[in-house]
Amino acid sequence: MTGTALSPKDAAQKAQQARAIRECLDRYIPEGQPVALLQFPFDFNVGNHMMWVAAMDYLKQRNAPIAYTAHGHNLDLQQMIRAVGDGTILFSGGVTVSRLWPRHAEVKRIVAEACPRNRLVSLPSTMLFVDDEDRREASTLFGNHRNAVLLARDPVSAESARNVFPGNVHVETVHDSALLLPPQPRHAAPDHDVIWLARDDIEGVGSLAPSDVEVFDWTHYDSAGMRILFPGRFFSRVRKLAPTLRSIVNRQIAGSYDRFARYVLASGNRRLDTGKVLVTDRMHPHILCALRSQHSVLLPDRFGKNRAVYEYTGRNYSTVHWADTYEEALEIARTVARSTPV
Description:
Protein name: Pyruvyl transferase EpsO
GO molecular function: transferase activity
Helix content: 40-55%
Low-confidence stretches: none
Number of helices: 11
CATH architecture of the domain at 8-180: 3-Layer(aba) Sandwich
Mean pLDDT: 92
CATH class of the domain at 8-180: Alpha Beta
Domain Polysaccharide pyruvyl transferase: 45-290
Structural class: alpha/beta
Organism: Rhizobium esperanzae
EC number: 2.-.-.-
Shape: globular
């Protein structure tokens, strides 16, 4: 069973956004030249893997070989420098420049210091800062690096970044890279009218979801998925012990990461299959729903990320709805579910 195709209006909107993302990335990632792709999401957050799969697909289409890839804790600077040469270094998107998720910021800092002549590109992200101390710390992230590019996935983030980072750091606004993914199919009939994806981390505001709907998050450990990652973990050790084999080994690592990311994305699609309408306070589920032509109701997060992305990217999709409160979200979701065929 497959879901309804995107409406002509939604398909045109998606195509325009994807085209804008590709044109932006093309300006900073030379065709056919090697790149390093850092900060692989060693987790089960489907949104992180949506961005990773989109980046992998784009780089393949761009004929840009991935000379080196790593997650936050198996990065070897010297091996990366030897592998990528004067190529571009990419950082995966997300919330990656503040102390909310500090390892992302730390990796950017050490790479910027070690690679002053490489172009650094932070893929589309939200620029969140907790307080003035966080802003001061972030402002030094790239030091005096003369070729650092921050891609902000909404104008609010872009303005925030320009207010924090010095003039040597270039900031540009473009939609979240997950919009590069193709439309995603539904494979099963829903079990519920309304499902509720509630985040339970620092960006959430606390779940007040009603007891009579299916409530879940999409970040939980999956032993089958970890087995897919085993080759990547094994070859990461080989890369340390046999640096002369780095080209062969890195292909194995990149392949393992790619298979895992696609597995996690597929698991997210299966989870969304269980409902007609999704309510969520996570940002990426509403993008995945838009790609599936599935109705979603997006709620605020703690820091304003969801509203900013909704205004810039999501609001013109016919299947995307905004709610300020949990009560409003449930009312919208139930109303839409009653009138939505599957």
